[in-house]
């Protein structure tokens, strides 16, 4: 029989507290994705977890703080995945390819996408949420922009506004993500996902890859 060890006074251990935080954020994310930000309630989230509202409010004073915590955790995971993908590239363009594929794979997750699509929908009518979404997006896309700048410096991509080039790449990837999300299969087909990604990457390269003259300028 497993006994849960608690500190004196019945306080949870650090591991127990961290596990509860993970469950809280997972439950909140699901509720936001299922009902939208405006319609999800702190009461529903606490009930889903079988905890008191007091426990939830002690950690997060309101729904906005809870939403911030959910997004912050996702940002950390997202940027970590992109950084790991970049390290597998032998040059900045290969790193960008790997980062783009990692971005694409995140977008094929239906629950992940449902959550962010609900945030985007409500940001359209909420100035405050719209401003926060813009800040979150900039933070999420920084690794892509930075890698584009490195690829430009190496003569592998044309010179230009790196942020705008990032936006073009993201638009291509989001289109491919939509194709995957709208498919009828429960689990995305790996071969089809790879084909969709590579076709979009080829379009990006055709438009943005530096020619011989620009590559010589960097030598």
Automatic annotation (TrEMBL):
A Pfam family recorded for this sequence:
TetR_N
Name the DNA-binding stretches: 41-60
Q: Which InterPro entries does this entry report, sorted A to Z?
A: Homeodomain-like_sf, HTH-type_TetR-like_transc_reg, HTH_TetR, Tet_transcr_reg_TetR-rel_C_sf
Q: Which residues form the HTH tetR-type domain?
A: 18-78
Q: Which PROSITE patterns match?
A: HTH_TETR_2 (PS50977)
**Which GO terms fall under molecular function for this chain's record?**
DNA-binding transcription factor activity; transcription cis-regulatory region binding
Question: What keywords is this UniProt entry annotated with?
Answer: DNA-binding, Plasmid, Transcription, Transcription regulation
Name the record gives this protein = Transcriptional regulator, TetR family
Q: Which organism is it from?
A: Sinorhizobium medicae (strain WSM419)
| Lineage of producing organism | Bacteria, Pseudomonadati, Pseudomonadota, Alphaproteobacteria, Hyphomicrobiales
